[in-house]
Amino acid sequence: MNTKLNHSLKELAQLAGVSKSTASRVISGKGYASPEVRERVLNAAEKLRYKPNAVARAMVTKRTNNIGVIVFRETLPIVSHPLYGKIIDAILMASEARGYSVFLKTDKEMSLRSTDYMLEQRVDGLILVSRLRKNVIDYVKKFNIPYLMVNGSTDDPEVIHLVSNDEEGGERAAEYMHGLGHRRFFILSGPGAHRSHSLRLSGFHKRLLQLGVSGEKDIFIAESPESHFDYGVRLMNQHYDAFRAGGYTALFTTNDMLALGAMKVLLEHGVRIPDEVAVMGYDNIELGAMYSPALTTVSVNAAGIGRDAVDILDRLIGGEKDVPRLVEYDSEVVIRQST
Prior knowledge:
By secondary structure, the protein is α/β, with parallel strands linked by helices. It has helices spanning 9-16, 20-28, 35-48, 54-61, 82-97, 113-120, 134-141, 166-179, 195-210, 229-238, 240-246, 256-268, 286-290, 302-317, and strands at residues 66-72, 101-107, 125-129, 147-150, 161-164, 185-189, 219-223, 250-253, 278-280, 297-298, 326-329, 333-334.
């Protein structure tokens, strides 16, 4: 029984009775080899338990079959975030299907350190998740490595980015709530510096004005520095008196976690949902469907974003130039009990 580990390509070729170049063609699957020669080489590889050395293979092909994913987010949660978690899951699954291994880093400071780490691992390409500073993009460009941005925005026309059409999603949410007969709207928004929250609020507010709702009298907007459940509780508690005094019949939040936090406060005060107030969130996280009453929301195609990010990056790594610079994903209203 053969017990030696890490046999060389030379030993494999000798056992199969072929040249090293022929053995290499068979193992790599690149180039021609007759069926009889292929069988000999593969049989020899099985006997030797031969595994090609990844470092040596990378030196020849100039590829490591590794990609880097960096999530730029200043506050927790990061990987466990209801939206980013879905995107990352989809990236991991799509990468595995294409034969890539993934290095995953989070960067709360939005610095260059995570980028340096990925470059040290000689990744074939980068997926940059969430908003990031321009200096990071400029830095990545210097190394001539394929990259793209997910769920972020930039004025740089060279950057490929995949995003949900959040402004349109906000408009659809407004149309739905207005269509139910609501005319007084209480809005809790996540941080305006974040692309998604800003566009969702902008789309919702703009469409209400177009539908004839008075911006001064009938719309109340409160912004939170964070978008977690606890901040939904805090914001609703802070503005509960204004909510009751204003006679608002519709509550819209720019993500589901804020909505669930606000609903907790309303239910604790005995407010009947949706009889007294209809509540609508954004993101379509699983927890929203588990809540009682189940949360009406706007869906985001997180799985499609993650899957397509790997597909486009793979094409860039392969040298393809004709890829879309902007990919936008439609959002749909998901109607449940809270409205």
